[in-house]
Write a structure and sequence with these properties.
Two copies of one chain form a homodimer. By secondary structure, chain A is an alpha/beta fold. Chain A has ten helices and 14 strands. In chain A, β9 and β10 form a beta hairpin. The longest helix of chain A is centred in the last third of the chain and has 18 residues. Chains A, B: It is found in: Cytoplasm.
Chain lengths: 374, 374
């Protein structure tokens, strides 16, 4: 598939010491960059997201993953802002990643995908790749960097690594580190992929197969963590599938066929090696350990304004972790607003139509725009 | 392996309409039955438990799973009580189940295990099998039925199905139904088993293999749900395995190797078809639907005394579900005590050394014993 992309021949040096050469960054933009180049908003996507934030996703034919939030007249108003969204490094929608063609140390193509040989990456590596894109677009300073979940981790790395380039930062439904429980859930998904006979030590591309069953299980378990017990209960409860009484068959509950559907559609659009690479990057994320053991150290002296948002029923990134982040920002004397959205929709709520969240983010961006005269 | 068991040649008719013939119930007892046969306490085990409640488990060589609670001078005092624990119907430690030899309609052995052909069972079927054992032991009335998690579901079925046989009932860390989220987690485990190449449509016994990778993944995801984020955080946090800095290797976090270990040891002692059969039985469990849509209907007119216990950080069977059970028991005018134990150890806490819980259960059993003059 052809994706719009920027290619950087000199490549990118990674935290692991490896170099990706050349570096490709696939991206999409919405709205127009103003003459002063001061109205750019960078959106960072989550684990299985992509650059198609506000338009039809070419593989699935579905609308953009943040269509509710990004567009003309919407909270991230593309009539006013120039919105950029890039596929993360390690992703599988056109940026350098395991599904792309492998290159040697001189950047020469090797006639096979990277696959399992794609180097380990970090959230900071993802952000460095985005920085190259932003430079390439001729933008010195981003009006805002916005993202939820793993996207929020990138927002934090942006603000920590390039403080002078970020006027406003909105880390949403995220944390300054990936918790032991979240690492454990990721590990279940990885074990499922590794256990699939079509995994073939990561070289599944050699015979044109994919570890569909393992990747599907990985998606199923992750999907549960994106929802809440209340959301699952309301959506499905214990409703039986096409039966009024217990039938003792497979897939007897609606929640089961829903989950299986989530798993089986996912494998058509996502690469297993990419999933492994990105889940590892999330697990490695620990802002404190990158800054002498204190999250506050990452933000001392910052002039970036922050909006931290959490969702009350999110148990993947609970409000308590957002509060800890706010305390660290306060300790760094940063300008920070915090909002906890009352919802029973779990982690997924950051992607859904949550009016209070949308008003909070819309107002935050407006305030930033007014400060810089956009 | 030889297990102590009672065999009932006439078999057991199941909720599904199938008949298991003969019915085998493997069990262990501790302490002595008194002359009046009034001091029997039945303990019901959880999903992956067994009858070795208070002695070395012969396959693992580890101590009994409720050693902290059951024994001489312990809260379930085997100097005073005659404790019975049976492997559940559908289990894999000697009771009729998928790993045992299949029999035909006349009860004749067929020279192969049941495997996938073992019929679907319910929690009530498990309890009916235990009832046969209790009758066989010459006991008309149980002083108490005690169990946690799936064991608690059995306790509720005992009190609902044989109210005159149960003086006291202690359903612990359980609920009157299995929630959509819990069904979803079970479905992930089943999908992992079904996706294993050694699953072979459930006929893995034919070539002496087991779907070890799939069963291991099922155990891993279940194990996370037994713990709490706080417990995982305290136990492992983000500690790295044998490294002081990020190494970008597999199994980099301690929590990962711990989980993998949990998975790989489990497959040595548990049968995959048994796991599928029992998780399904848990998913089917819904006391209200068996009693005209109201849990209270299951207990109207009961003289059984109840102790309902929950653990504050248990997110698999949250306190709210225990409270709902208590409200239903109140609505049925049953005699019920309720205790929520403050702990950060998650669902697993019911198996651990929790002094407040142990005192509550010990006191409850003493009270029951005094009422019947034991």
């Amino acid at each position: 598939m052809d994706h719009q992309r920027a290619v950087f021949a000199d490549g990118l040096a990674l935290d692991s010491g490896a170099v990706i050469k050349p570096l490709s960054v696939a991206y999409r933009t919405y709205g127009k960059l103003n003459a002063l180049r001061t109205n750019a908003v960078l959106i960072c996507h989550a684990l299985t997201g992509d650059q198609y934030v506000a338009e039809t996703q070419p593989l699935t034919g579905k609308g953009g993953w943040w269509d509710t939030l990004v567009g003309p007249g919407k909270p991230v108003d593309t009539n006013r802002f120039f919105v950029i969204c890039a596929n993360v490094l390690g992703g599988c929608m056109g940026s350098s990643g395991p599904a792309e063609e492998m290159t040697d140390a001189e950047g020469q193509p090797m006639g096979r995908p990277w696959g399992i040989d794609f180097p380990s990456i970090t959230i900071r590596d993802m952000v460095r790749a985005q920085k190259r894109l932003v430079d390439h677009l001729g933008i010195d300073r981003l009006l805002a960097v916005v993202g939820g979940s793993m996207g929020g981790m990138q927002v934090l790395e942006w603000a920590a690594t390039y403080p002078d380039m970020v006027v406003a930062a909105a880390p949403i439904a995220t944390a300054s580190y990936h918790s032991a429980q979240n690492i454990a859930f990721h590990e279940v998904g990885r074990a499922a992929i590794h256990g699939d006979p079509d995994w073939k030590g990561g070289r599944y591309w050699e015979d044109g197969r994919i570890p569909a069953k393992g990747l599907s299980v990985a998606r199923m378990v992750a999907h549960i963590t994106y929802l809440s017990e209340a959301a699952l209960g309301r959506k499905f409860g214990r409703r039986l599938r096409g039966a009024s009484a217990l039938t003792f068959l497979e897939d007897v509950f609606e929640v089961e066929s829903y989950l299986r559907h989530q798993g089986s559609t996912f494998v058509r659009r996502f690469d297993a090696n990419s999933y492994l690479t990105i889940t590892r990057a999330m697990d490695y994320f620990d802002l404190a350990s990158e800054h002498g053991g204190e999250v506050a150290n990452a933000f001392r002296g910052t002039r970036t304004r922050f909006l931290v948002a959490s969702f009350s029923s999110d148990w993947l990134f609970p409000t308590e972790e957002s509060r800890a982040l706010v305390r660290a920002l306060n300790a760094a004397a940063a300008n920070v607003s915090f909002v906890e959205i009352a919802t029973d929709k779990g982690h997924d709520a950051f992607l859904l139509d949550e009016p209070v969240f949308h008003r909070a983010l819309g107002g935050f961006l407006k305030g930033a725009a007014e400060r810089v005269g956009v």
